[in-house]
Each structure stands twice: as structure tokens, then as C-alpha cells.
Specification:
about 45 residues
Length: about 45
């Protein structure tokens, strides 16, 4: 494996981890469609 492949692999891993972190953050801040009615009734 040459230098370019190592750099590409690390960038790919970092990008994937960033996307996973963003997806988890977005999921925590939103309500799933099947839970919206339950949340509105509780207010």
C-alpha cells in the first residue's frame, strides 16, 4: 500500500465517523414520526 492509499483510507475513516456522529446528533434532536402524536398529547 503506497502513501496515497494510506491517506485516502484515513480520510475515508474520518469522514465516515463524522457522518455517524452527525446522524446521531440529528436523531437526538428530532422526533420520529410515529412518536409525534404521543409527544403532542403530553404537552
Amino acid at each position: 500500500m503506497n502513501q496515497n492509499q494510506k491517506i485516502f483510507r484515513w480520510i475515508l475513516i474520518l469522514f465516515t465517523l463524522l457522518m455517524v456522529a452527525l446522524a446521531i446528533d440529528m436523531a437526538k434532536n428530532t422526533t420520529a414520526p410515529w412518536n409525534k402524536k404521543k409527544v403532542e398529547k403530553g404537552r
